[in-house]
Design a protein that fits this description.
It is a single chain. The protein is mainly α and about 200 residues long. It folds into 2 domains: about 5-75; about 85-155, no CATH class. The protein is built from 10 helices and 2 strands; from the N terminus they run αααααααββααα. It has helices at about 10-25, 25-40, 45-55, 55-65, 70-75, 90, 95-105, 125-130, 140-150, 170-185, and strands spanning about 105-110, 115-120. Helix 2 packs across helix 4 (about 55-65) and helix 8 crosses helix 9 (about 140-150). It is elongated and about 65 Å long.
Amino acid sequence: MNLFAVMQPYPIEVEQQMQRFYQSLSEKDRRRYAAVEALKLGRGGLSYIGQLLECDDEAMQLGKRELEHREWLSQSRVRRAGGGRKAALATIAGLDEAFLRVIAKHTAGSPMDETVKWTNLTRQEIASLLNTEGIRVSVTVVDQLLEKHNYRKRKAQKRLATGAHPQRNEQFENIDQLKYTYQAVGNPVLSMDTKKEN
């Protein structure tokens, strides 16, 4: 069953305002705001708000519990006493190297600006790939890694289907093999989109 069938998403302008407001909040207020919005929408709200604000279920559930306890709401601290655990980025040995390794084959960039790069992997897919490397992290840590290594978010664009061809995948397999061969001997590989209009 489609969760979004039981609720109406906000207009795109409202979604963008919500995202901007969410980004301006502290960690504590983000989870509480996300929890309020999810509760307002009822069934399907948790999934919708989680995707819209990129806030995981665990954080929203904590925000909901905090809203139910008046003494927690009166606290000015972002985190309760104790300061929490040290950041995973500072404590997990080899995290940066493993992240760059698993994302290497899924990285693209702009031919017009070498500082612009992105990945076609979702945060959860990156976390799963890191798990295969023996490193368990949350999508929040993946967000921090993407930001640290200057990856930008890139939204998928809807395009009309152009049909299928029996040999369509062969060209990509050939390109992938050529990339591997060149990189194995230390040669650089450049990928260029030649369709850009001036």
